Amino acid sequence: MLSGSLNGKQGEIRHQKGINVSLPLTKMIHSVFLINASGDIFLEKHWKSVVSRSVCDYFFEAQERATEPENVPPVIPTPHHYLISVLRHRIFFVAVIQSEVPPLFVIEFLHRVVDTFQDYFGVCTEAAIKDNVVVVYELLEEMLDNGFPLATESNILKELIKPPTILRTMVNTITGSTNVGEQLPTGQLSVVPWRRTGVKYTNNEAYFDVVEEIDAIIDKSGSTITAEIQGVIDACVKLTGMPDLTLSFMNPRLLDDVSFHPCVRFKRWEAERILSFIPPDGNFRLLSYHVSSQNLVAIPVYVKHNISFREGSFQGHFDLTLWPKQTMGKAVESVLVSSQLPRGVLNTNLSASQGIYTFDPVTKLLSWDVGKINPQKLPSLKGTMSLQAGASKPDENPTINIQFKIQQMAISGLKVNRLDMYGEKYKPFKGIKYMTKAGKFQVRT
Amino acid sequence: MTDSKYFTTTKKGEIFELKAELNSDKKEKKKEAVKKVIASMTVGKDVSALFPDVVNCMQTDNLELKKLVYLYLMNYAKSQPDMAIMAVNTFVKDCEDPNPLIRALAVRTMGCIRVDKITEYLCEPLRKCLKDEDPYVRKTAAVCVAKLHDINAQLVEDQGFLDTLKDLISDSNPMVVANAVAALSEIAESHPNSNLMDLNPQTMNKLLTALNECTEWGQIFILDCLANYTPRDDRESQSICERVTPRLSHANSAVVLSAVKVLMKFMEMLPKDLDYYGTLLKKLAPPLVTLLSAEPELQYVALRNINLIVQRRPEILKHEMKVFYVKYNDPIYVKLEKLDIMIRLASQANIAQVLAELKEYATEVDVDFVRKAVRAIGRCAIKVEQSAERCVSTLLDLIQTKVNYVVQEAIVVIKDIFRKYPNKYESVIATLCENLDSLDEPEARAAMIWIVGEYAERIDNADELLESFLEGFHDESTQVQLQLLTAIVKLFLKKPTETQELVQQVLSLATQDSDNPDLRDRGYIYWRLLSTDPVAAKEVVLAEKPLISEETDLIEPTLLEELICHIGTLASVYHKPPSAFVEGNHGVQHKGLPGSAGSAESESPDAVSAGAATEAPAAVIPSQGDLLGDLLNLDLTPPATTGPLPHSGGMQMGAMDLLGGGLDSLMGAGFGAPPAAMPPAFSAPVSGSLYDLFDLDNGVGMPLGSFCPPKTVWLPAMKAKGLEISGTFVRHAGVIQMEMTITNKAMSVMTGFAIQFNRNSFGLAPAGPIQVPSPLSPNQNIEVSLPLNTVGPVMKMEPLNNLQVKKTLVVFLFRQVFLATWKDIPNENESQFQIKDCHLNSDAASNKLQSINIFTIAERTVDGQDMLYQSMKLTNGIWALAELKVQAGNPNYTVSLKCRAPEVSQCVFQSYEAVLKN
Fold this sequence. Notes:
- The complex is a heterodimer.
- By secondary structure, chain A is of the alpha+beta class.
- Chain A has helices at residues 2-22, 56-65, 103-121, 126-131, 133-143, 154-160, 166-175, 266-272; strands at residues 29-35, 41-46, 75-77, 82-88, 91-97, 144-145, 148-149, 205-218, 224-238, 244-249, 258-260, 274-277, 282-291, 301-309, 315-324, 332-340, 345-352, 356-360, 365-371, 380-387, 399-407, 416-422, 429-444.
- In chain A, 20% of the residues lie in helices and 39% in strands.
- In chain B, helix 14 packs parallel to helix 16, helix 25 runs parallel beside helix 27 and helix 29 packs across helix 30 (534-541).
- The model of chain B is unreliable at 584-588, 597-708, 758-763 and 792-814 (pLDDT under 50).
């Protein structure tokens, strides 16, 4: 009995060996499939031999098993390949690989592809990709050679393949010229591959946005379970020539966990805590950082809540009040409260002191668009919830999700000291903006 | 107008229309047509019929058009090789173009066309491009060598491209260096033994310099390559670490993880008292935490790797528990991984917070996650003794919620808590019993039954409870049936007077009405035990149970070490050795961590693993689930082997199966399974050939006992969770004996050895039970000699396991016997013959030979040659061993014969020839 099953196993192994002879061994990404929300493959690109799209059946199986699209596992094994996927803009980007590769490498690359599409077409949707399918194909070909990434920096790509614009399309149609660059991109091999040479602007400007997102879990009683800040400094630099910038902070000690754009000179940072770099041209993320020590993370919004159900009454009581705290006098804006109410809730009868609230009886999603919080008049949402007759008291406690924005403040207290430019003679216009946002900000009830 | 217009075509004559447009005189129309063709290609339509027309557009000054045609060529050249030749001239011309972009494009595209005739023409342009003045062309050409190697490895070697590629490691341009490294790594993967990547301090220095300046992707290639280097001493190790550390701040998470791999590996070399060691530990935590704020897919891979890192060096993240707290909208795969790491990091210091979190999770909506969370509470109780009480009360709270699946999970874990802390928390049994009716999952039912049986003396109505289960005995799963049988026997042994009827009932249900051999056999054993020797029955059934391990599902140390060397790879995601991932198993070198400096024995790999083993926490049962599950459940279930990855063809997986198989068959008096990874033709005829071997002793009349092959390792410790068996067969005074050395290389005590044999037609079976004085302590080894007899052509299924068996593993590597015998025969007795003009493949040959009783014992494939190892016995009692070499496409076979009586070789050869040519 057992030997029978083992024979089967052996047969299988032999079968695999047989296949192995005919397929080439590829180290890196073999193919990419783009799959939309309804499960159609709408684009495929192969870098070596063509892999049949039937390989995606394994992906579809996993997709069916997953309750939500977000829950499809990112790495799926199949008998002869691995499928590594990312989900962005409701599109699955599925890479097919054939042997051992670093999965992060593949995932990072796929995200880079999405970023590039977004950069080129403004949005990354199925329609946009289909509208620009030839450019997409040219881009994919330029980004990967033999499964190795080739050019992924957007400014280099843009020199090789010009992004489509309405004007260019018209001009091309009339003159018959092309949207493919004829020259080797200048940045490609220089020591500053992220910057092309010969950049010229009439208005020289450099803007930096310090954006911080608070991720927090607050428990029932209002005490903080975890809180951390994910910060980024995004830059928009339009400067002529080869400017060399330095950016210094009032309190660089905050930044002990940072990830830099490749342009930042790491040694200088290590030694002096100064960011010194030749910036890429245009928009880029200069650095991202992480502040996790909790005493540095102030919680700007508190919630008083009472969501309860009484046994036997088929009714629930709902009471929610928000108030701002530790905001250094800045207004908390664009507040949006949402919560997934228990499945047993049929409907709600609530009144909001400000803003609009909606409840979707199908998805049980309650969302309340509060707007700006006025510290003198705290926003609240009160009322009752009706339960299905005969249903027992729901077991789960809904979690409250809060989104908000605070302008002109970095909640960690990070402050830029000064920005200097060397290497060029003109005086650039400089600007720094701060903003704090809620990331995954959750309050348990 | 957008590109979507390319999709709109008239249904009829689409190809025809395109053909006309492609041949149009107008450039613009041509280009539009090619775009349409490409658009069709992207959605998987077959437009290969347009091949000649598209290729005709190739000679153009328009770069975009050229690129589009190249795109098309790469897709379809393989299906139209003759047509593809038409393109060669243009390629060769383009490789001389003054524009480096076009030169690079041409060489790049040519390499992607997998047509032999094209590759021939590729060599010259490639050679020029590798030495091109423009680095862009050089770096493209470097990758092209890898492509060419993939198509025709021999050609690449003959043309000397490998040396040129190695020279490029010293190129002045970092991008060229990175691509050369990438190409060499890919090539090296298919040449496991070549020293292509000869890493020495000089090349290391070049790579480290290039690391700072090349692109993020190049950094990954270089870091992965650095990880293969073994530093000479701790100083070199430290200096490499210092130069790699800045990569931890890179924005690309793959770079970060590759850097972590290098650091984790080289850290092993650093003495622990070194200041730098502590600094490095501190530097590793922030980047790992940062990875968790990235996109969920990245988080998942990071978490799987952190799981390994936490097991190897828990100190790195011991203060970072909070970053692993689950957010309610994390994807499920992230949630489950976070949970696992939370348990690994749980300690007395943070257990209160962890428990509060776990309790919170147990009220979430996602059922799978809730179950895991409940289980995690149980694991905490077992791991952190001080928290056990708190965990139990948390579990009781959860049982009070009456949520069905929560209650069931809680009962399953409470059973484990009872095992770990006997006689401590029995007060909760009453609460558990209240929920008896709501249990509908086999695992929970089995757990509850186990509890009732185990504590039968304290539960007044234990008999009633068990009786209630008995009513639907046949509808229960095997797991529950087995458990019920054992529980009732326990009950009977504890309260014999009132429960006689019950035990009769269950025994007859198990033995007479069941089709399940496991259940039947267990029933018979109990029955016989109870009827012959109740005292012995008590000793067996109510034996003291071994303690269960503190920490569950830790990865076995040797595997963990290997996985640490593969951080960031698929192996690290699946926690399986890399050999399971590379098809065909070639190119896999087992990597080990370098030993720490200052330890004298650090040179030998064995000493390293031993050292590592002692560092690991005590009382670890290395396990990937099965074994531990079995230990926990003890006599609960036939272990369910975790489904192997569909892809895994490797030896390791075979061994895992084996283990499952071996355990599985325990109850059913099965047989040790031949390793699954052995060649397929192996298992059926093997008994015959072994029979030959054993019979020969009589036939040839060799002095008794003179043939005693040395012991060989049958079962390496790595594959059997620490149990190593080496052995041999000998014949003493006419009795065949199996001599074994059993070594416990795990960190826990092993007990309860039993043995079983593969069913074999010659009826080789143990003549007595195996005598292993248990328990076998860690690192102890023991010599066992087991007499064997041949009781009949088909072995009768006598239950061998009259002990409560817990661990059995005997693997017959018949191949070993063959090999030993082969070596035993003097070389001068070997003779070689050629069989000419034979057109069979190895399988057919093997079958044919089998028809005249020449049996294939093993086969393997070396360099495209199939090697068949065969044995035969002549009627006069002389036997011979043969090696048959079959090369695909070559009609000439080579037979090497070894025989104690060389004079028969000629006749054997003649019969070989006669059969194979017939």
